[in-house]
Every structure is written in C-alpha cells, then in structure tokens.
Design a protein that fits this description.
7-stranded mixed sheet, alpha+beta, 48% strand, 7 strands, 24% helix
Length: 129
C-alpha cells in the first residue's frame, strides 16, 4: 500500500521578490512544505488545496502541477506526494497543533531551513535556485 498525499509550493511575488511558505511541524520538529494525506474519495488537487489551507490558513489558487515524489515515510511505508504551485489569495496563518509556525522565505534561505531533500529539490527545480 502506498500513502497518497498532496501539497503546495505556495509562492508570493512582489516585483523581483519571490518568497515561499515553509511550515514547522512540532510533532516531528521539522521544517517542510505544506502537504497532507488524501481523504477518502478526494482527488489529488482538492487534497492539495485543502491541506495547504489547513496547515497555513491560506486559501490559494492552484497553479501548474510540479510532479510527484516517492519515498519511505517515518514508519517505513511507501509514500507518494503530488505537488502544485500555488498563489495565496486570502487568509492568515494561525498556529495550531499540526503546524506551529509559518515563515515566508526567499528560496535560497528556504533551502537552508527545509529538512528534507525532496522539498529542497522541488524548490530548486521550480524556482531555479
């Protein structure tokens, strides 16, 4: 069985400045991109939008699909995550149990903070850093 998850590379742009949303999960004490498991009967894109909103408080516009990654999760299960580029439309981050901090970072700074190589590779490939 493969765990299916979806997430977003949430990017905001102001002129030349590009920042992306990076979240801290206290349960794992890690920094990652917002993502989560598909619900029963939920399609990939809907799950990506829902999970990003749940973790960041941001309602986003879905952009291009960025591909998927496969790896073994912390429990040794196969996991597939499909990613989309997203643009925030509205909302505000509120700390919670699942995610206690959100940072807007320039891509090169995000690369230093992100804990997982698959997240760093997605940022490099998508944003050209």
């Amino acid at each position: 069985m493969t765990v299916e998850a979806a997430g977003g590379l949430v990017v905001r742009e102001a002129g030349e400045l590009v920042e992306l949303a990076v979240v801290h999960r206290p349960r794992y004490d890690d920094w990652s991109l917002p993502k989560g498991k598909l619900g029963p009967g939920e399609d990939w894109a809907a799950a990506a939008l829902r999970e990003v909103e749940e973790e960041t408080g941001l309602r986003c516009e879905l952009g291009e699909e960025l591909g998927s990654v496969r790896y073994l999760d912390r429990k040794g299960r196969r996991k597939q995550v499909r990613w989309w580029r997203m643009r925030p439309l509205e909302g505000e981050f509120v700390p919670g149990n699942e995610v206690d901090e959100l940072r807007w970072l320039e891509p090169t700074v995000a690369l230093e903070l992100l804990d997982y190589e698959q997240d760093r590779e997605l940022v490099r490939r998508t944003l050209g850093v």
